Give the backbone structure.
Amino acid sequence: MLYNYGSINIDYVYRVSHLVRPGETLSSQSFTQGLGGKGANQSLAMARAGGDVTHWGRVSQNDRWVLEILNQAGVNTSLIELTADASGHAIIQVDDHAENAIILNPGANHGFNERHLDALMTSVTPDDWLLLQNECNALASIMTLAARHGMRIAFNPAPLGANVHALPLELCQILFLNRGEAAALAGLDEHAGVAELMDALYQRLPEVELVLTLGRDGVRYQHGAQRLELPAFPVTAVDTTAAGDTFIGYFMAARQRDASIETCLHEASAAAALCVQKSGAAPSIPHASEVAAASRD
Ligand code: ADP
């Protein structure tokens, strides 16, 4: 089983002529509400890839529609807690030039406590994977507890925050990093070269599998002496929202069925390349049949 201890956000998106100024009251041209959050996106991607995924999360009892979307995609939602506190949410303004400004409120995503974590661990077995992003609280506790239960941990420290430096990253089996996250963890400048980044991360975390995604420049993988490099699929990107989430979901679903690392990277890259050709988050995450067709091309 793939368990995803992941955020669930409601995205409130307002189209505006310009980003609201201090003291101004502005009418929006349109409004949409949708499911977001890196956790929910990655669960959707894993399920669409055919993975066996259970989401561990918290969302307001007033937002049950979220469970329907996840269920329909094949995500097991039985361990999502319906809360009295507000759901995590993002208030997103998008202007006529596609610039955006976002207020993020973690809400229920930051309401985990030790009692929740112990309860979650009752169902796991040592073969299970635990996937984490950086949008829920109590990450150090859940990593420690999961490692004690023999779970294999995969962590995507996004969005990057100062808290990440204090986490027991050596307990992770896999780290998924983009260039900015890799530079911060390596303690290097964001303009550092890829080889330099990988070397510094390897020095710090020699046992961990490192997956470095580089946007249109593809992906690098390193585990001990094993180093792999895969170019991105040559496509024209229209919106890179959820590209990283799609990549991680497809990688983990392939990994769950014990595919080779080369296959994991190839399927994840094919899926992410399909994602960047569509707008939006959840709607742009492709289905396995589309990825299979793109992989053959
Ligand atoms: P994040 O969105 O987390 O910053 P990246 O930008 O590195 O992550 O993108 C994740 C993956 O999405 C890349 O490794 C690549 O496979 C795919 N991808 C992103 N941008 C493009 C692009 N312009 N063309 C093709 N694939 C892309």
